[in-house]
Amino acid sequence: MSDSITGQEIERLIQLLARLPGLGPRSARRAALHLIKKKDVLMAPLADAMVEAVENVVTCSTCGNVDTSDPCTLCTDHRRDRNTIIVVEDVSDLWALERAAVLNASYHVLGGVLSPLDGVGPEDLTISALVDRVAQGGVKEIVIAVNATVEGQTTAHYITDQLEDFTVSISRLAHGVPVGGELDYLDEGTLSAAMRSRTKF
Amino acid sequence: MSDSITGQEIERLIQLLARLPGLGPRSARRAALHLIKKKDVLMAPLADAMVEAVENVVTCSTCGNVDTSDPCTLCTDHRRDRNTIIVVEDVSDLWALERAAVLNASYHVLGGVLSPLDGVGPEDLTISALVDRVAQGGVKEIVIAVNATVEGQTTAHYITDQLEDFTVSISRLAHGVPVGGELDYLDEGTLSAAMRSRTKF
């Protein structure tokens, strides 16, 4: 769309919105128009929320979570079990595990997975910081909760190697049939993993 | 997600993003995380763009377009044909027609279509403003470019009735096969309209 149709401000808003994940050029235009129509009840508060987030949100220097304080709310929470660290790829995974409220543990955000093809090596992740946390003592269990992809599994193996010298128990998430899932739609790998790890009824 | 996991600022950002069309709760979280990760290159400029849009974007009092000036760029453009007015439901339709660059004409944004079930009557749309524009003289043709829905067609008929007393030619967009469309996938209504309006080869 040329600048002659809409003001440059609107055009710029559309272009920036289009860079959000899940929004393409067309849906960005729709979102921009929606924002303009709800200028006072949506666009102004959203702009405020962003300005505040830009100013206040920091990455926790201990676990890699994003929060408004460093160390983050999770790292300073005394009810959390600090003997167990759940290792995740990304903050979104941390959020997902917290929503499921699966384990009252601490976290460690890697910031990605090892991927030689994409040029991501161990020094690009927070693996050495994890080793430091374990070296400080007190950590009894590391749960590696990375995605079940080839890169995720490679990363899990690398971390296990790095932690070899410590007396820490290392576990990973179980493979199996998703709750509510239908066998018919599952891939062979998942099915055979679920069969191998079958549990007594 | 409870406030104990993420700061209230992040939670508020997610909730506001979820109100954008095309973003649900899950994709809003993803978008928020993306914004936080690209704080300086994306979130800060987007916040700025929104603040500017909140301050500067206005609705054109002549045609109903949104722009940074009133009357809008289109209404003040002297190269535009002011004898022809294209009537559209929404600003997004105006943008779509401008992208296609179909007709160098003026516009009139209705702000919706007549819909008794949703409680939208003629007084909720800018129909009387359109009649006023025609009454001022100089307008030779009105192209009614509303959606081909029942409500759209009802609105088109209502507008035609209102303009009965003026010597203005009223037309509507042609029905037919979309360019690149396959007959197999078209509904009977479109096919029969395309057949009725068949043109000499």
TrEMBL record, chains A, B:
One Pfam family, short name: Toprim_4
Cross-referenced SUPFAM superfamilies: Recombination protein RecR (SSF111304)
Superkingdom to which the source organism belongs: Bacteria
Zn finger residue spans: C4-type: 60-75
Record keywords, A-Z: DNA damage, DNA recombination, DNA repair, Metal-binding, Zinc, Zinc-finger
Keyword Phosphoprotein among UniProt keywords: no
Domain Toprim, residue spans: 83-178
Database matches in NCBIfam families: recR (TIGR00615)
Family listed: Belongs to the RecR family.
Biological role: May play a role in DNA repair. It seems to be involved in an RecBC-independent recombinational process of DNA repair. It may act with RecF and RecO.
Name of the protein in its database record: Recombination protein RecR
High-level lineage: Bacteria, Pseudomonadati, Pseudomonadota, Alphaproteobacteria, Hyphomicrobiales
